[in-house]
What does this fold into?
Amino acid sequence: MTATIATWLAAPLGSDVAAALRRLADADDVAHIAVMPDVHLAEDVCIGTVVATREVLYPAAVGGDIGCGVAALRFAADATVLDDPRTAALILDELGRRVPALRHPVHAAPELPVALGPLSAPRLTSLARQLGALELGTLGRGNHFLELQADDAGALWLMVHSGSRALGQAIRDHHLRGATPRGGGLHGLDADSEAGLAYLRDLEWALTFADRNRRAIADAVAEILARRLGITAEPDTWCSCHHNHVRRELHDGAWRWVHRKGAIPAGRDEPGLIPGSMGTASYHVAGRGVAAALASSSHGAGRRFSRTEARRRISARAVVEQLGAVWFDHRIADALRDEAPAAYKNVEAVMRAQAALTRVVRRVRPRLSYKGV
It folds into this structure.
């Protein structure tokens, strides 16, 4: 039986997205789909989609960057500390050294936390040992970012968007090789099988790594701001949420495997973080626990243009103009054309479309944006 699809949309669905959702609804064991207002086309399963199954796990409905998510931390300072262009330039320069996009130099790599333990396959464990320390505390490319932001009261905040780096993708790919066709073009694993349990264990490993990765980045930023500006972080303000994961949840009296790909949990009063695009506002929210949405909300603004189309439409000059007073490295403006604000949906429209799903706690605006290329 075809699954039900509930939608919260900021604009009509494109025909390609609608077709992808119909295919997903026909996949084996899919009980319910919730479509978020930041939905956009992606390989196999659209980003901005929440999928509930009874017994089957779909790695493609989580994606490769397992545990990708956002973290936020407030500092005991006013955001005006970033008004000086020389200060902003120094911070951007230090971020480039302390928070690489891809890997730390071998001599500077942190230690991989022992508590993470082995993965389900020797090849994955070997890769984790080789790459884990080199990638811990690195940002990644694409839409991953680090921003210093101001809330509406002027307080200084950090927001970090990063995930499990290459390790999450390796885990996804490894388990897809053991999955079987389940309709809708997807391959799945029985949750209570040996293969399904191994995927869940490895997924938890990636979630932990992703969270520690964001913490390592935040620690590096805190050290830079303490040394350069003499300001300290406020640890009790830390918030972190994953937007690529699967977990067992109770919905309408039934236990379901809830897959979120580009969506955050939004249970009643559950804290969450919804970034906009480079140069636009982001939001700290609390969930409303809407059952039809599988207690979820959007994970961001969502792409308006594919990366190829954005690079065709948007110039380096337009990137500089769209970022306005936000400090960033103008030397990489050309490389950031597919990350310009115009490449993304209007985050304000997204937030209006999901007003029933989340309550806004705080709005923050970027003052300094750091991205890897």
In short: The domain at 4-304+344-370 is CATH 3.90.1860.10 (tRNA-splicing ligase RtcB). Helices lie at 15-25, 85-98, 122-135, 165-177, 194-229, 307-313, 316-323, 347-353.
